[in-house]
Design brief:
By secondary structure, the protein is α+β, with helices and mostly antiparallel strands. Helix content is 38%, strand content 11%. The strands form 6 sheets. A 5-stranded antiparallel sheet has the order 5-6-7-8-9, with helices on one face. Strands 15-14-16 form a 3-stranded antiparallel sheet. α5 runs antiparallel to α6. The chain starts with a strand and ends with a strand.
Length: 568
């Protein structure tokens, strides 16, 4: 008899020795009557009783062409297939134990599993006693030729799972299916226990490879729980009847978040459409407001027609002479300051409303010297506009006091209040008060401008500074004295005041001689021409362009000059 060294493959444990151990050999019979080959590999003893041994002849296939290379000078000897010998008990081969099939479990197959045991009860063996070898991946393989001339191969893959496939003398491919890992966490192994086999005609049009795949589940468990190969006719292949068309149960693991970047718009059919009752309600509300406005105008006109109100209007016509002499007219810097103020205020209102409605910012800005000061790009843009607006306001106030024009908007007498009431009544009655803005504002205008410049603007700056990242974090006493909740409660109403002031201011400019008024503000002229109007139109175009351009694509390059811009 000749001996052949087994090829050593990969180690079975990380950092271990290659498997099988050095010196493992397989005995090759020299004659047809030689003893069956025995693989000398370590056998792990198991306390489990051995299964009955099934006698089966085994022939080692040394070469595909059934010839063996002989030493030089010796004619090659053909090794015929071993004849069936009923009186000889074949040697038992213990299968290599691989990785466990479950975390923390025992290595698979169980200890003491042999070819004979597997042939009657284990789903990991072939039908005859094979000779074992290791392939280049460290996987044990055993091949044999049974008494019908069918070649069978069993192997344990790198996951420790046993696979069995065979090709019999009719060219049929069959597979014994094991119960694998569960398809759900904590579930039963798959396929389910007690799977009923289904017989399919061998003359089916399904390809051989397809029938081999359909034979999953052929290994049906017995009443004792030991899986055995399901018996089937030679002309049939076994397939499972388990329904795999139903998707596995699953749970949602991805959450859109509180503020998703993209929210699918509801279809037009799903959007609520205004009903005719809602339209009637809107019309009735508008009609009610018109009726109230008409009633107020009629009431005020009736009130001003009374003798004592006529005396009141004579005493307080709506304006008074300032205590400080002021040069008439408007300097050119007032026109420029007015334009910059409107331009910045419109963008500040736009960015402030965006901050209140923005659910998920598209970009962020981080100062270079403070990585923890990251804010959204919209907040940075809002605060940058605030700084420019405050700078413009400081320049306006400085020039206002240095040129002496401060007396135009700062009250210098208590007569401002009764004259403001008189001007308000005249506006409501549509009997406009005397307009002489080139020389002097009426008392109502003076109070409105004073409140906007010296009250609303500082209040917006103080509340905005408290809410911004520039507020000192370590000033605990100051933070307790001025809570951020107060700032939030005041900042938005101040913005609403600016919006109402802009609307009322533009409306009165248009209703009380818009050509002269626009010339005062934009052309520094006391004349009825179109110069100031076209300058005003050009300023509106610039404001509209700024409104459209106020988006991350345009803001990000500017923000990068002062810090780092990122998408998250």
């Amino acid at each position: 008899m000749a001996e052949r060294m087994l090829r050593r493959g990969l180690p079975r444990t990380p950092g271990g020795e290659p498997w099988p151990p050095g010196g493992a050999v397989v005995v090759v019979p020299g004659t047809p009557a030689a003893e069956p080959p025995v693989v000398e590999s370590p056998v792990v003893e198991s306390p489990v009783a051995e299964s009955p041994v099934v006698e089966s002849p085994v022939v080692e296939r040394a070469e595909r062409d059934e010839t063996r290379r002989a030493p030089e000078g010796v004619a090659p000897q053909v090794v015929p297939q071993a004849e069936r010998d009923e009186t000889r008990r074949p040697a038992r081969t213990t299968f290599r134990r691989g990785l466990p099939r479950t975390p923390g479990g025992e290595p698979w197959p169980p200890a003491g599993t042999t070819a004979e045991t597997a042939s009657v009860g284990e789903p990991v063996s072939s039908r005859s006693t094979p000779s074992s070898s290791l392939n280049d991946q460290g996987v044990a393989e055993a091949s044999s030729v049974d008494d019908r001339g069918a070649v069978s191969t069993s192997s344990v893959d790198d996951r420790g799972d046993a696979e069995v496939s065979s090709l019999d003398d009719r060219g049929e491919i069959g597979a014994s299916v094991r119960r694998g890992l569960p398809r759900t966490v904590g579930g039963e192994p798959w396929p389910p226990a007690g799977t009923v086999p289904r017989e399919t005609s061998a003359t089916s049009d399904v390809p051989v490879a397809g029938r081999a795949e359909e034979s999953l589940g052929a290994m049906a468990p017995t009443a004792t729980g030991t899986p055995v190969a399901a018996a089937s006719a030679p002309s049939t292949v076994v397939a499972t009847t388990a329904d795999v068309s139903t998707p596995l149960p699953w749970s949602r693991t991805v959450w859109n978040g509180r503020a998703p970047r993209h929210v699918a718009a509801a279809p037009a059919s799903a959007r609520p459409r205004p009903t005719w009752t809602q339209g009637i309600a809107v019309l009735l509300g508008a009609a009610a407001l018109g009726i109230l406005a008409g009633a107020a105008i009629a009431f005020v006109r009736t009130l001003l027609s009374l003798p004592f109100m006529q005396d009141f209007l004579m005493a307080f016509p709506g304006e008074y002479e300032p205590a400080v002499h002021v040069e008439p007219g408007f300097a050119p810097w007032i026109g420029w300051q007015h334009f910059f103020n409107v331009f910045l205020m419109v963008l500040i209102i736009r960015s402030g409303l965006t901050i209140r409605t923005e659910k998920r910012p598209t970009a962020f800005w981080t100062p270079r010297n403070n990585p923890k000061g990251k804010v959204s790009l919209t907040i940075w843009f809002h605060q940058a506009l605030d700084v420019l607006w405050l700078v413009n306001g400081v320049i306006f106030v400085v020039l206002l006091f240095t040129t002496g024009h401060w007396a135009r908007i700062v009250p210098t007498s208590w007569e401002v209040f009764p004259n403001a009431l008189s001007a308000a009544l005249q506006y409501v009655s549509f009997d406009w008060p005397h307009e002489n803005g080139w020389n002097n504002y009426n008392s109502l205008q003076q109070l409105a401008y004073f409140a906007t410049v010296f009250l609303a603007a500082p209040l917006a700056a103080i509340t905005g500074f408290r809410m911004s990242g520039m507020w000192p974090k370590k000033a605990e006493r100051l933070s307790k004295a001025y809570p951020i909740e107060w700032a939030r409660a005041l900042h938005f109403p101040v913005m609403l005041y600016f919006v109402a002031f802009i609307i009322a201011h533009v409306a009165l400019v248009m209703l009380t001689g818009f050509l002269r008024n626009l010339n005062h503000m934009y052309a520094s002229q006391d004349a009825v021409t179109w110069t100031g109007f076209w300058v005003f139109v050009a300023s509106l175009v610039v404001i509209a362009v700024g409104w459209v351009a106020a988006r991350p694509l345009v803001i990000a390059p500017i923000a990068k000059l002062f810090g780092n811009v990122s998408g998250r």
